[in-house]
């Protein structure tokens, strides 16, 4: 990597978790500086203008006068305007309001369609679910696992919301040994790891009034995986 560092830097766009700018510059002067470091390619300028419009950022203001959200937008523009094939983004939506978070996710999805690869570090599980195919789980600085999101949400644990007809049916569920979370007097959420034979055998013994299958949210699956590792 060190030998090929110049070439590699040209392939990677980066948005750090903590942004540090030359505060005396305007946003536009900073972007022009980055553009100049990459040869003043007119295509970079076109992408820059499009990104500024999408993120509703006026870059003429001095950076030291910008809010955290504005600085975050400036960082996003500088990372995306280079159109690098690989982008590393650390907490990319920090400081963005909900509307801008949605716009940012749309930028990622559009770039993915064009073949870009993203490595995203985030504590916002919803944005990971919407943008990524694989999740790396880190604990105490060590990579515990790399899994498909579908594996975490579907393969590892499923949920079933079940409503039964009577108290005797509810008692059968309570004594079944299944992992239950009460949702009502006779309604339960059943969490199943792996094989589902015991679930179906138990449900065959009761009168079911309502049934809904679901999957754990990524956050729940992550915490379940984290606590068991």
Mean of pLDDT? 87
- Computed structural class: alpha/beta
Q: At the fourth CATH level, what is the homologous superfamily of the largest domain? A: P-loop containing nucleotide triphosphate hydrolases
In the CATH hierarchy, the third-tier topology of the largest domain is known as Rossmann fold
The rounded distance between the terminal residues' Cα atoms is: 32 Å
Q: What's the Cα radius of gyration?
A: 24 Å
Task: Please state roughly what percent of the residues sit in beta strands, choosing from under 5%, 5-15%, 15-25%, 25-35%, 35-45% or over 45%.
Answer: 15-25%
Number of strands: 9
Q: What proportion of the residues is helical, as a percent range? A: 40-55%
Kindly describe this structure.
This protein has helices at residues 5-9, 27-37, 42-54, 68-80, 98-113, 125-131, 149-155, 167-174, 197-203, 218-228, and strands at 12-15, 86-90, 117-121, 134-139, 142-148, 157-164, 179-182, 187-193, 208-215. With 229 residues, the protein is an alpha/beta fold. It has 2 domains: 4-132, Rossmann fold; 155-216, Alpha-Beta Plaits (2-Layer Sandwich), CATH 3.30.70.1150. The protein has a 4-stranded antiparallel beta sheet with strand order 7-8-6-9. Strand 7 (179-182) and strand 8 (187-193) form a beta hairpin. Helix 2 (27-37) runs parallel beside helix 4 (68-80) and helix 3 (42-54) runs antiparallel to helix 4 (68-80). It starts with a helix and ends with a helix. The relative contact order is 0.11.
